[in-house]
Here is the input.
Amino acid sequence: MLIVRIPAARHKLPRRLDRIDAASDHRRMRAVPLSQIRGHRLQVRALQQVITGGRMGHAYLFEGTDAVGKRTLAWSVLARLACWSETPGDACGLCRSCRALQRGDHPDLVQLERDGTFIKIDQVREATARLKFEPVLGKIKGVLIDGAEGLKEEAANALLKTLEEPPPNTVFFLVTSRPQLLLPTIRSRCQVLRFGELASADLATLLQHEGHDPDAALAAAALAEGSLTAARALCDPDKLRIIDAIAEFAFELGSHTPAQAGGWTERLAGILNGEQPGEAAGRADFGRSELLLAVDALRAALRDAMLVACGHDPAGLPHARHAAAMRAMAARCDPDQIAKVLRLCESTEGRMNLNLGARMAWTELAVESSRLLGS
Here is the structure.
């Protein structure tokens, strides 16, 4: 595939993960076989049906949650459309089109990305100029516009002219998490498929296929808010150390006095700032983004504990490695008590919008949680 690739603006991670660096390969192109796409089953099935029926449109808009595989799915469809195999199903992987795609030098398939802040008119003109000719290696020509909301006004207008009079045997895929920034006229020329978050189970499976430890994959998927990019970042050992430490604290709530729980604030500050176990605790501080990550980790652990309190087997839960601690918590706390603490986590996040100090917010959360679970 030909990549009109200039360094693109990094995708923003979910707000509570905005200080976690994404994995370095999060923007690589992947022609995954359609049958191996995880999640988005309805969208995949619909696309497979139009491919099989020969009813593929000329332009599609994949819109919705960021970093959930929209671009990957678009490349999978382009690979299937360009493939010379007449057998239904996935691209064959053997024909001249598939081999070129695997090498990364397919002359008929083009990806546009941001050049700095925008996708510029010269990029659109260069890509659309190639569409005047017959395909060189594949059955079709394809253009994938990643981050289509970044089309500069003149670039968007240039693209619109092509979408209004599309060349034969050409398919466009526009991928965006901010469809409201696209020209309405561009949206009207596309068939729209909407995408939501990936399920935690799908995220965990994808991470394990990439070689991550199963326990780490489950823990990261539980906090990633449906984003594979965020899940990869959370598989970092330092982030997992934070998640595990907060989980241990969560499962001890109610077994100590509220004052003891409040005293854990200093330990949390050290953990969030990279202090190793056994180091002398300093007066480390933490801010709003670190607090939100900590609250999310606390809430994820308590959700698992509530499931165990309701009779669920800890095996298979994101915090299964803490099975003994979850069972101990479930033995002393009923599900209603844990549910009250989960609501308290939600209200703590809301209060952060009032610029309440992070240290004070966590201390109050820890003290009140311990009181609720110890009563």
Notes: The chain is about 50% helix and 10% strand. The longest strand covers residues 170-176. The radius of gyration is 24 Å.
